[in-house]
């Protein structure tokens, strides 16, 4: 490059970049690669997957909606003998959909099935259904987990027939679900909640264990339950791995309404939310199924802390509350509270499912029927809102639930 070119570039204002670039100390880690797209389920009468593209700057763009060929549903609340369909938080769950590799799995709570799609890696908004929606054996499926290592998908159901069923999957679709693993619930369809329902199913970091969190009920002194089901590897490697039907259901002392959870990288501990007090780090022995509170975050002024995502950038947990529009950051080692970000200026009533990708947090507010559904994008380092993206159309409503990110 000629000197004159440099000179003209400098005059064009490039020189201004120099002090800014050196403002970041060289000890700071470089920003992580952002995700490619954010997905949720509309959970309307006709269920669909809503996909929003994530731009290279981490911000969301206009999306698409793809039918799941299934139906949504809502759990019911009973107040003064009056039944009402729940929403926001129509499903009382975390992970109503999940991603494994380039596959996406979404529950259909109103038609008791799960739908599998392949994601076009060149166009993450393009979803192709693989096979047909598969019956999950239970009623009101509200959470799903998938293991890429074992090619297994597991679905938690919270209705009259409740429990967890698993099936193998391949590029052709989902195979037959095996059987319902009971989780100690006696419910109706749709369930009366939010207590005494399945909160989430998820695999351990090494994908050798399937966990489930089940809500207790403070009015009857029922504590939260953690289900621990080992993945059985076959002796012959040509056979498929299966999730054991012989799991352990552990009452976790000190928890009440165990809700959305996350594995913690390089640790066998798990991070759980509990709307009775906030959040906790549990130490878990996958062999025996024993679990106990290692650190507890009592979140001041919280109403329903139910969802969590751990940022790969900060290695801290971010939790949301459906009745309070803020994001609380919690340590994944001792559950100490690191920061509280008040988002009330954007007008949303509260937040539910969220995911962390790159240096950003994507948190869903389904609105409340008058406030539009929206996703708040927050910078995980600065804890500042960088975008408030309202979802117009696409079947989004106060029943919308779930969050998954394609990395
Ligand atoms: C729950 O436990 C408390 C404290 O042990 C007790 O006072 C209360 O009666 C119990 N409630 C029910 C419904 O069992
Ligand atoms: C986990 O361990 C790997 C390998 O030792 C390391 O590169 C990574 O930074 C660790 N992650 C965390 C969150 O500690
Ligand atoms: C919806 O949420 C907004 C913002 O919090 C609030 O002003 C409004 O009263 C709520 N509407 C309903 C129907 O709850």
UniProtKB/TrEMBL annotation:
<dbReference type="InterPro" id="IPR015943">
    <property type="entry name" value="WD40/YVTN_repeat-like_dom_sf"/>
</dbReference>
<keyword id="KW-0732">Signal</keyword>
<protein>
    <recommendedName>
        <fullName>3-carboxymuconate cyclase</fullName>
    </recommendedName>
</protein>
<dbReference type="InterPro" id="IPR011044">
    <property type="entry name" value="Quino_amine_DH_bsu"/>
</dbReference>
<feature type="signal peptide">
    <location>
        <begin position="1"/>
        <end position="23"/>
    </location>
</feature>
